[in-house]
Specification:
- 63% of the residues lie in helices and 0% in strands.
- It contains four helices and no strands.
- Helix 1 crosses helix 3 (64-77) and helix 2 (20-38) packs across helix 3 (64-77).
Length: 107
């Protein structure tokens, strides 16, 4: 899955006015957390996504972590803190599932 695909998918789920660059920052926040916290990559070695064609590190079926994170940031920065609590809980659950998958030895 690519940056473009996850943004298009997320925008269908939750229409919003945030631009590509903002969503790319949010995607890179997830990328950084995945790479450092789950995969053990040193901070100075983090791969940063820069274009819409860049492939995400996390693929199906776990790629939903990007959408959940983007949705939670949309809710947060829109000031809808009730929705933010729900969307951030969905993100945390998805990240926990992905982390378990990696701990079991998947690459």
């Amino acid at each position: 899955m690519t940056v473009k695909e996850i943004i298009e998918y997320t925008d269908k789920l939750k229409p919003n006015s945030f631009d590509f660059e903002t969503k790319l920052v949010w995607i890179n926040q997830v990328e950084g957390m995945v790479q450092t916290e789950i995969r053990g990559v040193p901070i100075d070695k983090i791969r940063t996504l820069a274009t819409e064609d860049d492939a995400l590190s996390v693929q199906h079926p776990y790629a939903q972590i990007y959408s959940f994170y983007i949705i939670s940031m949309i809710d947060f920065f829109s000031g809808d803190f009730v929705k933010y609590q729900n969307s951030s809980a969905a993100y945390n659950d998805a990240m926990r599932l992905y982390s378990r998958y990696i701990v079991r030895g998947a690459k």
